[in-house]
Amino acid sequence: MNTDRLVQLAHGGGGRLTRELIEREIVPRFGNGPLSGLPDGATLPSPGDRLVFTTDSFVVHPLEFPGGNIGHLAVHGTVNDLSVCGGEPKWLSLALIIEEGFAFSVLARILDSVREAADACGVTVATGDTKVVARGQGDGIYINTAGIGLALTGFVLGQERICEGDCVLINGTLGDHGMAVMSARQNMDFVKGPVSDTGSVQRLVAAVHEFGAEVRFMRDPTRGGVAAVLNEIVEGREIGILLKERDLPLAPATRAVAEMLGIDPLHAASEGRLILFCSREVAPAILKRWQALPNGEGAVCLGTVTRDKGRVVMETVTGGRRLVDVPRGELLPRIC
Amino acid sequence: MCLAVPMQIVEIRPDGKGVAELEGSRHVIDLSFLTDVRLGVYVIVHAGYAIETLDQEEAQTTLSLFAEIVREAQADRPYTEPLRT
Amino acid sequence: MNYIDAFRDPAVAKQFVRLIAEQGRALADQGRRVHIMEVCGSHTMAIGRYGIRELLPENVELISGPGCPVCVTDPGYIDAAIALAGKGAILATFGDMIRVPGSTSNLTQCRVSGGDVRVCYSPSAAIEIAQSHSDREIVFLAIGFETTIVPVVSIVDEAIRAGVRNVSLLTAFKLVPPALHALLADTEIKIDAYLCPAHVSAIIGSQAYEPFVTDYHVPCVVAGFEPLDILYGVNGILAQMLKNEARVENQYARVVRRAGNPKAQARMAQYLEPVDAVWRGIGVIPSSGLGLRPEFAGYDAEKKFGMPVHIGQQHAGCRCGDVIKGKLRPIACPLFSSVCTPDNPIGPCMVSAEGTCAAYFKYALRDVQQGGET
Is the ipTM of this complex over 0.85? Predict the structure, then answer.
């Protein structure tokens, strides 16, 4: 018999149970800053002259996986979106949509992770919301976070600024999150698999803003993986990208699962990675700086920008060359 | 047609299943089609089933032949005989 | 020791490319072009993934064969599966099947309109689904060649032992040797040698190719799926051709034995018997498939639900049949990359990731770029 306390519909009904949920689960973790006193909205100090603002919703199955859970993702995803836009993340909103019957013990773990990740990133959860939907109408829990950051001075970012000869840098291994989540699914029969890379890239961004215009563009390779990001950048343009298969940074366990399931790790999502385009001149300095930072140890140059119109090409280990295509539809394990 | 990878058996269970490892990933697989089920052997895994054992000696023979080809090329000896298996 | 990376060594690849070029030149000096059919879709995929086609001399051509179970699945099979979902069955399938076109729909569309379609990595998941949904019927889409047949038919074995009665197979199992025979018997198709599949051969053994050597004098080289295996295989074929030999050469001896895997063969024989099979684009090849023996009719979805599979309709302009038979290169098909793309696949060769057309679309640099016949 499961003795765990479960979320009831009434926890979202606005009455006594709602108050109890907020007071037990939210206030102790997030109630110190703008959230104290539970106002309907957060009043924030007005900082610099330009802000960066983003929002993202998080749905993942399973909710907990090697390397993290949906709580980490909800913070890192939004923090990273702010960061790659050249922002210094400051405040988050946190909206929970919980399915009736969800275990409070799991909710507590997820909220602990939100707290832990937010603290590590130096961001404050400033406002939030909680709703409960009937059993069968949600997948355990969905989270939405919006984020506000201060625009860092010095950056002049834009895809159109990328030009031939530029370097494509990444701060670590490819596709770990996507492969971790896939192999953590119950029917996959893995007892041990890849570990998600969920993490923040904000310090890596902060470390390079002084390179100013030499940094052309940044993007986090989430859904669709590195292949999707690179193809989107060169599509319809006079430039292309050349990758070398032997230089691709891959975690052994991720690579193993990708081989087993027939999935290209270039198509699998990362949640703690940053792709940065910069001039060839500053690339070594950026790599050196990143490699000294947490979540930057594995930084490498992934490839170079070419004149190969609109195409992402990889030189393979055999010395052959092939197109790096965008992923089509959902990533599924194959037997063929 | 048949994606399959070499994995090493690290656990044998009484029900005909076992655990195989590749580069730190561990997966439950079915061992019932193998004649030689021992810990440490490499097997070829397809759709969760070990379909055959990998003969390490044969693998080594092939790799030695590959190494020989590279050595010959480095010694810049002209290639005369077609490869034999 | 990692048995993957050792077979991807760039230094060795470089030497094989050189050896292949030398032998290709020697053949060219004799005025010979070589048409090697890589039978298996996993070879096709690996050839694309490692850019091997463009490393070969001009007179050595790799033709992709019928060895992709998804590609040779007839639209009527998908129609039957969708009909079963419509009657409330849970369809359990390999991910590969999810976008294969039926006559009018596919499994993705079926799921969108309410069908219960579940993707499995291992067939044993079908038993788990059956046990946790004892009030529903589970139909496993039982496609595949010899390698895949073995795990899939184990569903019946497990179901019998576990007393699970609500699971059945919709079979479209296919066998490699009868197809290879049919291709050689077709005088319109030019095949000089077979690069034989890796893991099918692990089941059936390299001896299965001996008749092609004796009856048709076609070199047959069994090769693994790693890039060095493939280059080694092509090199071996060219060496045989230069000497005008035709032998079965097992270059994947680390996995393939001459007689194959006896336990796997016994499992197949226990539950299955030869049947005529429809190959999409090719037609019916006698005794080229396997179906459940009559005593296991209770696990045979067609019999259990009285819904026989009929031959389906394919797109009028689709020339997958010719592509599968190696008569037409994808690029020469009028639909390729104009109407038929991986996002909107018309024919099965574009659907499966290892389908010939998909592999060309996905990986090829030269062909797609130039367009037209190469």
Answer: yes
